[in-house]
Amino acid sequence: MEKFVTKLSQHLDWLAGWALMALMLLVVGNIVLRLFGHPIEGTYEFVGFFAAAAIGLALAYCAVQQGHIAVTFLVDKLAPKHQAVIDLIIGLLALAFLVLAFWETVAYGTTMVISGEVALTTQVPFYPFIYLIAFGLFAFALVILVGLLKPLKKVIEK
């Protein structure tokens, strides 16, 4: 399962990189075309869409690389078993939060589908990007779930 989650996270990170590339090209293209009096309509909206996609898709791989901030100066002074228990508790809380965030984001996306809400300038629907963020949260939750196996093993063994 760990290999699958790592591979999925890498693919999502790759997509996030393409979203950032598209965002950059859009902004640069808009600036250049603005000089000639022909700015790209909806640039502001697409920048928001691409940024949301990039952030949502990159979360899981950042967690795989343990790139998120962890303040452990107090926990590091504890015995290894106590550290594992605290890691397990924090991991379970993070997993619960991410599952709830995933669920609520899917519900919000469904609300957007039902209401038919679209961006003002481009008329692009919001829900595909909301679902993309939800999928990124789901992948992040999978990474946390896989990461919980190590402290769980330490707690059970000792």
Question: What's the SSE pattern?
Answer: HHHHH
- Biggest beta sheet summary: none
| Rg value | 20 Å
Measured distance between first and last alpha carbons: 24 Å
Beta-strand portion reads: under 5%
The total beta strand count reads 0
Q: Provide mean pLDDT, rounded.
A: 92
Instruction: Tally the structural domains.
Output: 1
Uncertain stretches: none
Count of DSSP-assigned helices: 5
Helix content: over 70%
| Morphology call | elongated
Task: State the secondary-structure class.
Answer: mainly alpha
Give me some keywords for this one.
158 residues, mainly alpha
Helices and strands in order, then pairings?
Layout: H1 2-35, H2 43-64, H3 80-115, H4 127-147, H5 149-157
Verbal overview:
With 158 residues, the protein is mainly alpha-helical. The chain has one domain. The protein has five helices and no strands. It has helices at residues 2-35, 43-64, 80-115, 127-147, 149-157. The longest helix is centred in the middle third of the chain and has 36 residues, at 80-115. The protein is elongated and about 65 Å long.
Please provide a brief summary of the model.
This protein has 158 residues and is mainly α. It is 77% helix and 0% strand. The two termini are 24 Å apart.
